[in-house]
Design goal:
The chain has helices at residues 18-21, 34-39, 57-70, 82-85, 95-110, 126-130, 138-154, 167-176, 187-211, 233-247, 251-256, 278-281, 333-345, 373-391, 434-445, and strands at residues 3-5, 11-15, 75-79, 114-120, 160-165, 216-228, 288-301, 310-312, 350-355, 395-402, 421-424, 429-432, 447-449. The chain is α/β, with parallel strands linked by helices and 450 residues long. The structure holds beta-D-fucopyranose.
C-alpha cells in the first residue's frame, strides 16, 4: 500500500468553459460568438448538437456551486464569455453580462471556493472574426481592452486568472485544421494568428498587472509529453521540434521572448508578421504555468505540409496503452514527464494542473447510481504520477479535474462525457458519479492510499 500525499494548502478543483456549459447563448445582451456561428452551421458538430442550452449553467450556477461545496472542492476554474461582456468584441461593457459573473463569483466565495477565471476559452465574438479574427493583429488590442474591463469589474474578488485556454489548440484547430470554430484551413492565417495571440498575451498581462500588481496571472497551456517513436537521431530531433510547436509556442515567447525552433528550415517570423520590438511585446512573466494534459504523443520524422519535419506516429501519436471511450490513450507517466520538463526548463516555476480527465460513457444503473470505476482508476494513476513529480521537486499548487459536469465537448457535441457529475441533458438533472465521491475524499484527505 502506498500513501499518496500532496503539499499542504494544495488546491483541489474542477474546470469548465463558458460555451461548454452555460447555454443562454443569446440572453441578456450576449453577442454571437464564433462557436455559436460554427455550431449553427450544419455538418460541423456530431449529431448537430449546439451549446445553445448546454448544461443551462447560466441559470443553474447556484446549484452547480452547491455541488462543488458538497464535494469539498477548494478551487473552481471557469471561463468568461467575451461576447457576454462586449457583444461585438469592442466598445462599452454589457452590465448584464458582467453581473452574471459577479453572481457566480460571489456564490463561490460564499462557498469557500477560490474562483480561478479564464479570460478566453475559445468563444471569440463573431464580429471580430468577421474583421479577420486572430490572424488580424488588431484583435490583440481588442483583447487587451476586454481584459482590462473584466479586471476592473471582477478584480476585487478574483485574484487568480488565466489569460488563455490552450492557445495552441484553438489556433491549430480553428485556423489550420478547421475542425473547431471558425473552421478555417489556412497555414498563413494560422501562423499570423499564433503571433497575434502572443501579442495579446503580453498586452493583456500588462493591462491586468497595471490594475492590480498582486493578482496571480497564468495561462492554461495544452501540453502533451512528446516521445520519439524510435531511438533514431531523426525521430529524436523530430520529437523535440514537435515539443516546441505544441508545448512551447506560447509559453516560450511569454517567458523568454522568443519562439521555439520548431520548423525544420528555421524560423518563419516574416510569415508570422513578427515586427520590430515584438519579441519584447510578447513577454508575459506569468505567476504560474497552467498545464492541461491528457496524454502523450509519439513523434516520427516525416515530410509534412507544415514544415515541421515531424508528425505523430500512426496519425494520432498514441501507442499501445489502454484507451478511454473517446479513444485517447491513458498514459499517466505523461503528466509526470511534462511537469518535470517544465520544472527543469523554466527554472522551477509555480505550476497548476488546470485540466486533466477522461471521457467515459457510464450512465445511471437501475438504482440511479453511476459506477464509473474506470474514471477513478484514471485519476488515481495520473495523480500518483503527479505526486512523484512533486516529490522530485516540482512546485505544483493545485489540480483541476476536467470536468465538473458532463457538457458540450466541441466537435463531439454531447457524445463525450468527461464529468465527475452526470448530466441528463433532457431534464438537466445532475447526479454525482462514483468518481465525484472518490475525488471528494481525495480533496478531504489531501491524498489517498493505493
Ligand atoms: C481541452 C479543452 C477543454 C475540454 C477538454 C476535454 O482541450 O480545454 O475545453 O474540451 O479538452
Amino acid at each position: 500500500m502506498a500513501h499518496v500525499r500532496f503539499p499542504e494548502g494544495f488546491h483541489w478543483g474542477t474546470a469548465t468553459a463558458s460555451y461548454q456549459i452555460e447555454g443562454a447563448w443569446s440572453q441578456d445582451g450576449k453577442g454571437e460568438s464564433i462557436w455559436d456561428r460554427f455550431a449553427h452551421t450544419p455538418g460541423t458538430i456530431k449529431n448537430g448538437d449546439t451549446g445553445d442550452v448546454a448544461c443551462d449553467h447560466y441559470h443553474r450556477y447556484a446549484e452547480d456551486v452547491a455541488l462543488m461545496r458538497e464535494l469539498g472542492l477548494t478551487s473552481y476554474r471557469f471561463s468568461i464569455a467575451w461576447p457576454r461582456i462586449q457583444p461585438t468584441g469592442r466598445g462599452p461593457a454589457n452590465t448584464k453580462g458582467l453581473d452574471f459573473y459577479r453572481r457566480l463569483v460571489d456564490e463561490l466565495l460564499a462557498a469557500g471556493i477560490r474562483p480561478a477565471a479564464t479570460l478566453y476559452h475559445w468563444d471569440l465574438p463573431q464580429a471580430l472574426e468577421d474583421a479577420g479574427g486572430w490572424p488580424n493583429r488588431d484583435t490583440a488590442g481588442r483583447f487587451a481592452d476586454y481584459a482590462e474591463i473584466v479586471m476592473r469589474a471582477l478584480g476585487d474578488r478574483v485574484k487568480h486568472w488565466m489569460i488563455f485556454n490552450e492557445p495552441a489548440i484553438f489556433t491549430t484547430m480553428g485556423y489550420l485544421v478547421g475542425i473547431h470554430a471558425p473552421g478555417r484551413r489556412e497555414l498563413d492565417a494560422f501562423l499570423r494568428a499564433t503571433h497575434t495571440v502572443n501579442l495579446a498575451h503580453g498586452q493583456a498581462f500588462r493591462a491586468m498587472k497595471a490594475h492590480d500588481a498582486s493578482t496571480a496571472i497564468g495561462t492554461a497551456f495544452s501540453m502533451s509529453a512528446c516521445e520519439p517513436a524510435s531511438d533514431t537521431e531523426a525521430d529524436r530531433a523530430a520529437a523535440e521540434r514537435w515539443h516546441g510547436f505544441v508545448n512551447e509556442w506560447f509559453l516560450m515567447p511569454a517567458l523568454r521572448g522568443r519562439y521555439p525552433d520548431a520548423f525544420r528550415d528555421g524560423p518563419r517570423l516574416a510569415e508570422m508578421d513578427v515586427r520590430e520590438g515584438e519579441l519584447e511585446a510578447v513577454r508575459a512573466p506569468l505567476d504560474f504555468i497552467g498545464i492541461n494534459l491528457y496524454t502523450r504523443t509519439r513523434i516520427e520524422a516525416a515530410d509534412d505540409d507544415w514544415g515541421l519535419g515531424a508528425r505523430p506516429a500512426g496519425l494520432t501519436g498514441w501507442g499501445d496503452g489502454p484507451r478511454t471511450d473517446f479513444g485517447w490513450e491513458i498514459w499517466p507517466d505523461a503528466l509526470y514527464a511534462m511537469v518535470k520538463r517544465v520544472t527543469e526548463d523554466y527554472d522551477r516555476p509555480v505550476i497548476e494542473i488546470t485540466e486533466n480527465g477522461c471521457s467515459y460513457a457510464d450512465g445511471p444503473d437501475e438504482t440511479g447510481a453511476i459506477d464509473d470505476a474506470r474514471r477513478i482508476a484514471f485519476y488515481r494513476d495520473y495523480l500518483q504520477a503527479l505526486s512523484r513529480a512533486i516529490a522530485e521537486g516540482a512546485d505544483v499548487r493545485g489540480y483541476h479535474a476536467w470536468t465538473l459536469i458532463d457538457n458540450f465537448e466541441w466537435a463531439e457535441g454531447f457524445a463525450q462525457r468527461f464529468g465527475l457529475v452526470h448530466v441528463d441533458f433532457e431534464t438537466q438533472k445532475r447526479t454525482p458519479k462514483a468518481s465525484a465521491h472518490w475525488f471528494a475524499e481525495v480533496a478531504a484527505k489531501n491524498g489517498f492510499e493505493t
